[in-house]
Amino acid sequence: MIKLVVGCDTVEDLLDWRRAHARAGEPWILRTRQTPKRAAEMLDGGSVYRVFRGNILCRQRILGIETVGEGVTARCQVTLDEAIVRVAPTPRRAFQGWRYLDHKDAPPDLDEEAFGEIPPELARQLREAGAW
């Protein structure tokens, strides 16, 4: 699954938001209007890839998908792993809601020990130049 992040420009902003809004013992829940038809696939090792300002920068493993409510009030709650895995910055155009992301199109995880903290814009430029 791929989803835009609204209100955060960086992964650090998202982590700061989580720290400010999390309640002790409460899981990280992503709420959406529609329950994915391919939920079973997504539970089998799937992740939510996050798009910040036009670039996929990280992912979180999906732990659970549940439909809450019935009829017109039904909503989907996606339970996410607290751990955020940074991925190779990959350009992505804006879209509404969420989309499926095929495994073949998913950006590779970054080895943070090898690269350290690289500014997302620099990483994008290196990737576009074929140097990364």
Description:
By secondary structure, the protein is of the alpha+beta class. The chain has one domain. 22% of the residues lie in helices and 33% in strands. Strands 1, 2, 3, 4, 5, 6 and 7 form a seven-stranded mixed β-sheet that branches.
How would you concisely characterize the structure shown here?
The chain is of the alpha+beta class and 132 residues long. 22% of the residues lie in helices and 33% in strands. Strands 1, 2, 3, 4, 5, 6 and 7 form a seven-stranded mixed beta sheet that branches.
**Main structural class:** alpha+beta
Termini separation: 24 Å
Give a short account of the largest sheet: 7 strands, mixed
Number of helices: 4
H/E order of the elements? EHEHEEEEEHH
**Strand composition percent:** 25-35%
> What oligomeric state do these chains adopt?
single chain
Helix content: 10-25%
Give the overall silhouette: globular
Counting DSSP E segments of at least 2 residues, the number of strands comes to 7
List the uncertain runs.
none
Number of domains: 1
What is the residue-mean pLDDT, rounded to a whole number? 88
Q: What is the C-alpha radius of gyration, as a whole number of Å?
A: 15 Å
InterPro entries: UCP032025
Protein name: DUF1489 domain-containing protein
